[in-house]
Design goal:
Blueprint (H helix, E strand, L loop, with lengths): L1 E7 L3 E4 H11 L4 H12 L5 E4 L14 E2 L2 E2 L4 H26 L7 E8 L8 H9 L6 E6 L5 H14 L8 E9 L10 H9 L2 E9 L10 E10 L7 E6 L2 E6 L3 H20 L6 E6 L4 H11 L3 H14 L6 H12 L7 E8 L3 E9 L1
Parallel strand pairs: 6-7, 6-8, 13-14
Antiparallel strand pairs: 1-9, 2-3, 4-5, 8-9, 10-15, 11-12, 14-15
Length: 365
């Protein structure tokens, strides 16, 4: 059962208009490039984003991508040092909040799942959280890395497997934590992939608490009942990450909305058919806010109303695409703004490199 979700955002809030003008400067302001940036910004569906880098704040003194008034390209090592510092801070904030809000003794957490695709260090986030939260030293750990925007739903699969593997009467509490710091990987070579990535991705962290304990009251009223994974053939060129000398380099095709409409939506409908579920039976939709065009494709293909799309579009508008953390923000939005009745179905969908699609079906309890 999903007990609760807490989120944490970096301190630097940047309007999309400001981010647009900053990117134009860093890509040398050529008219054709400026038009592409304006178009990507206008069609992003985003108003504000949060970053761990202060470069979008005029009054900030210690900027990450500027020095002495000149733009710089920090090496991957510098970016990973910032990743370690900020990922530790934000995951701890989110995890502490979800535990304290639900009066959970950290010593009762039996499994920790950590998720990120925007950085590495070892010992990693799991080690940091175990020590700072005083989690059990023998806690079972799972690290899901470099699996992109779909990774948190892959984590849901791990949650479901852990709960289903418990013995009769055995209780388990699980903590799932996701953090993505996309801003650390700013790339200023004026390619379509870079422009699109720079105009949609953002930073954020979220922590989700799960339990099978009947004594633990759920604020969320949702239970994971099934997860599904699909890897689409010959689609690796549509989304991916490569580690470069100056951060991670994003591969993000403008064809993604088309692929999602033509392949992902039919695959999702087939999943429903195989489970004996009609699309109309699903009362709540948590769709990964990968960008406005992706949400448009899902809305059109699944014939969803504007109201059904609102949680995903609101997260996109207010936070941007925070990769794996985004779907947790959307689920939190649903929990805060929707009435979930017993047996109501909620479908969560996200996409990752491959191209892959992860699906989680939850029901009201």
């Amino acid at each position: 059962m999903l007990i609760d979700i807490a989120t944490a955002s970096p301190p630097y809030k940047v309007m999309q208009k400001k981010a647009t003008e900053e990117l134009k400067k860093r890509m040398e302001g050529r008219p054709a490039i400026a038009r592409l940036i304006d178009s990507a910004s206008t069609h992003s569906g985003i108003e504000t984003r949060y970053f761990v880098v202060p470069d979008g704040i005029d009054s900030a003194e210690d900027k990450f991508f500027s020095k002495d008034g000149n733009y710089i390209r920090p090496g991957t090592k510098s970016r990973m040092m910032e990743y370690e510092r900020w990922s530790n801070k934000l995951t701890l904030e989110a995890a502490q909040k979800v535990l304290s809000d639900n009066a959970i003794n950290p010593e009762t957490i039996g499994r920790l799942i950590t998720i990120s695709c925007t950085g590495f260090f070892a010992p990693g986030l799991d080690y940091h959280l175990i020590n700072k939260l005083k989690l059990p030293g023998n806690i079972k750990r799972t690290q899901i890395g470099f699996m992109g925007c779909a990774a948190s739903l892959i984590g849901f699969n791990s949650v479901l497997e852990a709960i289903n593997s418990t013995r009769d009467g055995e209780e388990i509490n699980l903590l799932l934590v996701s953090v993505e710091l996309c801003s650390l990987h700013l790339q200023t070579e004026p390619t379509k992939d870079n422009i699109l990535a720079n105009m949609i991705f953002a930073d954020g962290a979220a922590a989700a608490l799960f339990s099978n304990s009947p004594s633990l009251k759920s604020k969320a009223s949702l239970n994971i009942i099934s997860t599904r994974s699909i890897l689409f053939e010959d689609s690796a060129e549509f989304m991916g990450w490569k580690i470069g000398d100056f951060g991670f380099e994003m591969l993000l095709s403008s064809e993604l909305p088309k692929i999602i409409f033509e392949q992902a939506v039919p695959a999702l409908k087939e999943i429903f058919d195989n489970m004996g579920i009609k699309k109309e039976e699903i009362k709540h939709w948590a769709l990964h806010p990968g960008g406005r065009a992706i949400l448009d494709s899902l809305q059109q293909g699944l014939e969803l109303t504007d109201e059904e799309m609102k949680p995903s579009r609101d997260v996109l508008k207010n936070f941007g695409n925070m990769s794996s953390a985004s779907i947790l923000f959307v689920l939190k939005e649903i929990l805060q703004t929707r009435t979930i009745n017993q047996n109501d179905l909620c479908c969560a969908v996200a996409f990752g490199p491959g191209l892959s699609m992860e699906v989680a079906l939850l029901n009201g309890v």
